[in-house]
Amino acid sequence: MKQKLEQIRAAAHEALAGELNLDALEQLRIKYLGKKGEITAVLKGMGKLTAEERPVIGALANEVRSQVEGMIETKKAEIAAKIEEVKLKAEVIDVTMPGRAQERGELHPLTKVMNNIKDTFIGMGFEIADGPEVELDYYNFEALNIPKNHPARDTQDTFYVSDNVVLRTQTSGMQVRVMEKQKPPIRIIAPGKVYRSDAVDATHSPVFHQIEGLVVDKGVTMADLKGTLEMFIHRLYGDETRVRFRPHHFPFTEPSAELDISCFKCGGKGCPMCKGEGWIEILGCGMVHPKVLANCGIDPEIYSGFAFGIGLERIAMGKYDINDLRLFFENDLRFLRQF
Amino acid sequence: MNLPLSWLNDYMDIDVTPKEYSDKMTMSGSKVEGYESLGDSVTNVVTGKVLTCVDHPDSDHLKITTVDAGTGETLQIVCGAPNCKAGIIVPVALVGAVLPGGKIKKGKMRGVESCGMLCSHDELGITKEMLGYEPEYGILILPDDTPIGKDIRDLFGMNETVVEFEITSNRPDCFSIIGLARESAATFGKKFTIPEVKFTETDGSINDAISVEVLDKDKCKRYCARMVKNVKIGPSPSWMQQRLTACGVRPINNIVDITNYVLLEYGQPMHAFDLRDLADGKIIVRRADDGEVIKTLDGQDRKLTAEDLVIADGKRAVAVAGVMGGFNSEVKDDTTTVIFESATFDAASVRLTAQRIGLRTEASSRYEKGLDYNNTVPAVERACQLVEMLGCGENVGGMIDVMGNVTDMAALPFRPDKINAFLGTDIPTDDMIKIFDALGIKTDLENMTVTPPSFRPDLAGEADIAEEVARFYGYDKIPTTLLSGEATCGRKNDRQKMQDAVGESLNAQGMYEIYTYTFVSPSIFDKLSIPADSDLRNTVKITNPLGEDTSVMRTTTIASMMEILARNYNYRNPAAKLYEIGKVFIPTGDELPDEPYKITLGMYGNKCDFYDIKGIVQTLLADLKVEKVKYAAVTDNPTFHPGRCAKVTAGGKTLGVFGEVHPAVRRKYGIDTPVYAGELDFENVFANINTSIKFTELPKFPAVTRDIAVLVDKTVPVADIEEIIAQSSKNLESIKLFDVYEGDRIPEDKKSVAYSVVYRASDRSLTGEEVQKSFDKAVRSLEHRLGAQLR
Asked: Which label site among B176, B303, B684, B721 has the fewest CB atoms less than 10 Å from its CB?
């Protein structure tokens, strides 16, 4: 019997070494391990053995059985792997064919740039304010030290709704609205649409966007104005961008400045983009005029502040190299998809 | 404002290049727009006399000339100009000359050597304005007395560099050569001097010829007059003409040119009257009569009001004060006696008058910014000096000088520490005083005050003084610091966060954001088929719109969306999914309208249908955590398809309306494919956001799913079925519609609706009996309330 078992072991080993398919493997399993299989038969014949032989042969029979079982399992796994391999080979596809993409929409480029600017100022402790686009003459002009008949009104061709109501020509009125409601320290930006009666062309639109900024606190200096806006510019355009503050005039700030940056196209050497000047005008700013503070009930002897106004379209045009302002309002999908 | 640098040199020494000059002036606050040196592009062109001129043997139009250009030799030059002849003096470009068109080389023309070129005005970049006349076609023939061998640039003032400034409205004093010279001197730390103005006066007095009366002393701050007799009208000398031309002023005659020259130099508008035209020898500065008509210099009749100030003689108005002189009193070729007017008028008054009569002139644009009443006397004296210099008349003795109501400049506190604290600088007081001195600001150290000069009314407070210090100290030298003081927390508020969330949701759903104009045409209401009595037609109207198309503020955003969809459709974009977050403007009883934000959706193409836009609305609201949203059919919104429009509500508020745009409406926009659009109210959506999301325990007990299919009338909205099923059990977890069927084996007016209903209790396993009871209850309710039959 011992011999028989060794024979079975050897035969099974040999049979399982060859090429087999799953059916042939199943036949082998039945042949050795099935109810009528050879090992089963040996185990069934155990009764005829002596008491001394039985445990020895029994142990051997179990050993052979588990060996054969193991060999069959291994073989089965091998065959399965081969089948899988063949199947996978047949499943080859052209991975260079286009993917099945879901088209995602995008924010308008003006929103993208606006978000960028908001993030920078939020990081510096600013909040965001919103206000009316149809505005009282008082907020748009009067409270900003631009009385009726002031020549500065000429430079802003105003749409009127009535003698006292205008479409705001600037977001600067938000300075006054915020200061009336909120006491210092104030750090806000107020983005929004503004209106000027300019005919539409590549660089003019009767509707465009500004972002007003306002800081009021004790001891705010012009050096703070410079530092804050310089940081903003560096965040927006990179640290290598040079910034210059050039004296200018706005009725509601004093001193006033325009902020130029080194041309983002030529880096300051002079090119058609910057009209050969090497500088591009980005925003207007200044120390809040004491009269404006006083108009809002803030004592200019105690508090000081600075304000700035950024033209959103100009920034976006520079950032994305957009050459025609009209594109922003045409909303051609072929344009919108580019951002 | 154009500044010829040679003119600047009359008042200060300028020894830097135009580039350096421009850069520094820009940084001290006088923005230079550019500069131009005319002569840079013309070198080696001199005047020359054509000695002989014969036809070229091998050409039908060329001529061979010999020319004396003062070079010591006679030049042979071939010329093609038809007006070339012997004896004329013309510009000669010598060999090696540079012209705007290129360099001149020695060459041969049809075999004949040519050593240079005889030039036309065009070839030299000389304009007819610079010449003062329209030259004939061909080479430029110069006056017979022109010296030979003279650089053409000197002849036409082309050596001049003209710097163009952008002057801000607060600095009327800088609309003058003297004002800019003062700024330049302060910028470069140079001395600024006004040469003494001297002239001789003849016997007699202006007072014998004329009297001046100022009736409105508020509108007329000062009126000075001087008289010139034995006037000989003629052209002014070329140096004066060149300077006027360089500043963009057309030379007319010596007297008018003198007034313009003084205007440019002193920034003081002047006028010259012909004494003959001043009836009764009177000048009366008075308000116009309502409806009084004056014919101005330009030949136009101008109707005035009682608010307008005029200069009148004994009989009628002869000038609109500060704006323009009258047609009848202007200087004429045979004028022999002139009255110079040099006056200061109220800024606002001039501005309003100019606006009313629609006439802005050199003079009015200066007056309306506010001029210095102390400038009138120096200006009129300068004019007299120029009269003498030009020899075009004799200055009659005396000056009439009538003062109006003026206020002197107030002294301002001078607190150097305060200025430094304000600027964030550490500028020594002495340096500040130096800046004040250069600008004509008087410092009183005893009282610590400064008094600005009368030509600087813009300096009205300490901040203005601080700006003067900053400008000349240098903005670039002010340090850069970051904000100190109490920290503030920067953040977006909840509405701003919702705005971002709307973008995120809609972008994820394939929607692109658009920006549109907020003013629209009043015709949009008809285009959207909005009824004549709709509140939407009550708009905020712009009184001075660019055009009818942009004349009212929108009360709905659908029209803007339709316009953009139509544009994309016309551009052949096959499909579009767009949204906008923007305002509408709803008139109220108050002066200002309400300005609620709307979220506007719009789409066409890709075979989209109603359920695509509904899916977008559903997903958007779900993303925003707006709960308990209900949808109901809207059949009477004329902008939309009567059977494919829904209203969305939550918390008792209408969030918005969306659906298929009525085919008749979209056809009006030229779109031949179904369009879906909707308008949600930002504030109502915001009000329904669930801001307190709480965790719900994950289910511990199994769910039981039962399918239910019922037959109902076709017209029954599935929402009604769902609501009834939902009310049938408190253990109902979800209801999901999985089939709607109409057709075979079902009565024609019925539809079969099938739901998968999930029951679950949070505290135990539901028994089959319990579920069956709930299920039966649902069926009974459906039967009872909707006449449904279980299938």
From this structure: B303
Q: Do A224 and B481 touch (CB under 8 A)?
A: yes
Unique residue bearing structure tokens 């939902």: B726
Residue A40: domain span: 2-90
Beta strands in B465-557 (DSSP E): 512-513, 519-520, 552-553
Within 8 A of A306 by CB-CB distance, chain B residues are none
- Residue in chain B closest to A120 (alpha carbons) equals B490
- The per-residue pLDDT for range A194-244, each reduced to its tens digit, is 999 988 998 899 999 999 999 999 999 999 999 999 999 999 888 999 999
H or E segment at B604? strand B597-604
Rounded CA Rg of chain B: 42
Q: How many domains does the structure of chain A reveal?
A: 2
Nearby residues of B117 by Cβ (< 8 Å), 6 or more positions away:
B77, B79, B92, B93, B97, B104, B123
- Strands (E) in B201-263, as ranges, are 202-205, 211-214, 220-229
CATH fold of B43-155, please? OB fold (Dihydrolipoamide Acetyltransferase, E2P) (2.40.50)
- Report pLDDT digits (tens) over B67-81: 999 888 899 999 989
ipTM comes to 0.85
Q: How many CB atoms lie within 10 A of CB B628?
A: 10
Between chains, do B544 and A159 touch, taking CB under 8 Å as contact? yes
Chosen from A140, A146, A159, A299 to mutate, greatest number of chain B CBs within 10 A? A159
Q: Does B683 touch chain A (CB under 8 A)?
A: no
Would an 8 Å CB–CB cutoff place A242 in contact with chain B?
no
| Residue ranges per structural domain of chain B | 2-38+160-188, 43-155, 202-403, 412-477, 494-687, 704-790
- What DSSP letter does each residue of A185-203 carry, written as one string? SEEEEEEEEEE-----SSS
Please tell me the number of Cα atoms within 13 Å of B76 on its side-chain side. Answer: 13
Domain B704-790: give its CATH code.
3.30.70.380
Dist. CA B770–CA B768, nearest whole Å: 6
Any idea which fold B2-38+160-188 has? Phenylalanyl-tRNA Synthetase; Chain B, domain 1 (3.30.56)
Contacts B26 to A, Cβ<8 Å: 246
Among candidates A104, A134, A217 on the partner chain, residue whose Cβ is nearest the Cβ of B592: A134
Chain A residues with CB under 8 Å of B485 CB are: 185, 217-220
Residue B122 confidence class, pLDDT cut points 50, 70, 90: confident
8 Å CB contact of A227 and B480: yes
The pLDDT tens digits for A10-19 are: 888 888 888 8
Query: CB-based contact (8 Å) between A101 and chain B?
Result: no
- Sequence-distant (6+) residues with CB within 8 A of A250 are A152, A256, A284, A286
Domain check: are A266 and A167 in the same one?
yes
Provide the 3-class DSSP secondary structure of residue B28.
coil
